[in-house]
Each structure stands twice: as structure tokens, then as C-alpha cells.
Amino acid sequence: MKKPILVLLSTLIVSSIALSACEGRDEQQEAQREKKPVTLTVRNPKVEIANEFEQMAKEYEEAHPGVRIKVETVGGASDDYSDITAKLTAGKGPDIFTNIGNEAMKEWIRYLEDLSDEPWVADASPHTLDGITLDGKVYGEPMSIEGFGVVYNRDLFKKAGITEPPQTFSELEAVARRLSSKGITPFANGYYEDWKLGHHLTSVAFAEEGPGFVKALHEKDIHFTDSEEFNRLFSLIDLTVRYGNTAPATTDYYTEVDLFKEGKAAMILQGNWVEPLLGEAPTGIFPLPLNDRGDAKMIAGVPSYWVINKQSSEPKKREAKRFLRWMVSSEKGQEYMTERFRFIPAFKNVPVNDLGSLGKETSSLISENRTFNWSSFSPCIKKRFGEIMKAYINKESTRQQALKGFDEAWTEGACAAPSP
Q: Per residue in 285-307, pLDDT tens?
């Protein structure tokens, strides 16, 4: 009976030695990987935090020897979509970039790494992953929560004797007249970029039309030319142009924000994300009213998601996941998110200390359920909507022609997905 036991013990000892050897090799390989430098290219679409994001990347490099973060900030007046499409098509895309989710996620799914097993998935606030989840798999980390409305200068409102933000379109019209009569330019308009016209503003009209509108469009039961809210959207555009700066279609995002920051205009159609650019300007934000019902809500939700390029090498994907984890789980990453970037966090585990005035007011509207979600449609439709609206602002088309153009763009549909 003793011999079999000895054989068994010998086998276990040999197996143990073999296992130890394997573990040793694994540790050596891991150590070698740690020593081999990895450079991650991160595409940051938020021009408002360009400097702060660079500083965060440097702090990450210092805490993680062997990892270099190369930040590419592209956005604002730049054509981010065309640029990223060209790079991905050429197989030269960044390791980490952003995707706005929903339809855009489906179009680019071939480039998106599955992040379902990442620990931050469990910490995401309710519904913040909905836009980046497909067939039960999570493909992106929510960047933040943002709200879009009317940012206003409290001091200029007070100077004109305006004590409360307008609740209806008629009240907004009266505020514009009042400001103008006091020699204050009511609106700074930057209508150069497609994203503001084609997505942010149209999202308000989509939301006001209600959830059945998109389904009816797809089934051709309704057209943009029939839509009251899209007609009102063009009335809003008319109002801002009538009481705004000259050449709005060639005024870009930066110029618009500068005009507002310098007190040369009382309002801009923007969101809480402009806060880092405004310094100490005394600002507030209110929902954009398209009609006179008095129940205007703010467009709010996750604007985009950090995603990892599936084409990147395995070491890069591994380090990219570490970087995304660090941003939402480390004390330093969380500090940058809320106090430096002024992001409203999309995670339950991120403490909120100082969001700034616009962030606080946006958060209050969200908690009061006075918000709509962002609309979701193809980036190519968004771009076409923007071009159509810009032509309208330039008086190159009538309102009916513009709305008919919306119908045609919707029928043409989504972009062809970029090919690898």
C-alpha cells in the first residue's frame, strides 16, 4: 500500500515543480512586459480641457513607469469625424478614442474592444451604459454626463432688469428684446460647426416631438416638413440670428465662447462643458424653450464613451484598459474628472466636490427629472443636417427647403462604416 502513495507523492512533487517553473516563467514574462515601454495614443475630443488632460496624462506617466501617453486633442472647430474615420480606415487609429454610442456604436463596432469585464462596469450609474451596450456586451466607458441649454451671463441679465430665466419661447423672445433695448447683444452665435447645428439643436426638436417621432419617420408616416417642433427650431434659429453677432455661420465655437466670456453677449446655446473656458464669468444655464408650454427640459446624458481600438496590439489594449480603470477608480483620476474637467460623473463611486455653477445647475435639473436624453442617429445624418441648417442661416434656402432636405438626409440614412 505504501508504493502507490510514494508514486502519488512523487507525481505531486514533479507537478508542483513544473507548476512553479510555469509560474516563474509567467512572472518573468509579466516583468518583461512591465519593462518594455508602451506608448498609448489617446484621442481627446474635449478641447475645453486640452491642457488639463495633458497634465493628467503626465501624472499617469509618473505613476506608471514604462507607459507613455500621447494625447491628440481634436474637436471644437475641427472635423473630428472625418479625421478619425480616415485614420481608422488606414489602420492608424488611436488606441483610445471616443464614440457617441447607439447608431455610431453599431457603425463602428468592428473597431471596438469588448470591455464587459472591466470593474468600472459595476460602478456605472443607471442607464449610462445603455448607449454603448450591444447584445449584452459593453464597448465603452462613459466619459461624463452633460447638459445642453442656454448659458447666460447673470450680471448682464441683472443690468437689463431681467430677474428670472425665460421659461417659454415667447419669454425668450422678450428677454432678447429687453437686452437689445439696453444695448446688450443677446446672443453670441457660433454656427460654423456641424455638431452644434446638426446634433445638439436638432436633439431638442427630436425630444420635444416625443419618442414616437423617430419610429414614424422610419415608417414614413410623418416628415420633417410636417413637424411643429422642427419648424419651431428654425424659429429659434431666426431669433438668435436676428439678435446675435454678424456672420454666425462663419463664427466658430471658440469665437462664440470668447464673445460670451468677454461680456459682449448675454447668452450662448451651449452646455455645462464650456465651464472650464469661462473662468470667473457669473453664469447660469436654463433649458432651451422651443414652444410656449412652459415645460422646457434640458438635453442631458452621456455625450460620448471612451473606447479602445480593437486593432491595437495586445500590450497596448492591456495598458489602455489600465488607463481607463485609473481614470474612474483612482483618487487622482476622480479629482481630475470633477474638479479639473468639471465633469458630472457617470459613476456611483466618484465623489462630487466641485462641479462649478453650470455643473451644479445641470445636476439639479437632472435630479428634478427636467431633462431629455440626447437623440441618436448616424454621424452622417448629423453632418448633413448641420450643412442644411448652415445654408438656411446663410439665406441660401428657405425653411421649407431646409426641412425637405432633412427628409432626404433621413431617407439616405446611415454612413457606410469605415473599412479596415
A: 999 999 999 999 999 999 899 99
Collapsing DSSP states into helix, strand and coil, what is residue 142?
strand
Residue 334 cell numbers, joined:
476622480
**Whole-angstrom distance, CA of residue 229 vs CA of residue 14:** 76
Which of 376-405 are b and which e, b meaning 16 or more Cβ less than 10 Å from the residue's Cβ? Answer: bbbbbbbbbbbebbbebbeeebebeebbbb
Q: What is the pLDDT of residues 33-70, one digit of tens each?
A: 556 799 999 999 898 999 999 999 999 999 999 999 99
| Residues shown for the chain | 420
Residue ranges for the chain with pLDDT beneath 50: 1-24, 27, 31, 418-420
pLDDT at 78: 52
Tell me how far apart the alpha carbons of residues 58 and 304 are, in angstroms, rounded to a whole number.
Answer: 23
Spatial contact of 245 and 188, defined as CB atoms under 8 Å apart: yes
Residue 47 and residue 76 in contact, taking contact as beta carbons nearer than 8 Å: yes
Smallest Cα–Cα separation from 345: which of 119, 145, 122? Answer: 145
User: Which is it for the CA torsion 403, 246, 362, 171, positive or negative?
Assistant: negative
Closest CA to 243 of 265, 227, 259, 222: 265
In this structure, the number of other CB atoms found within 10 A of the CB of residue 93 comes to 23
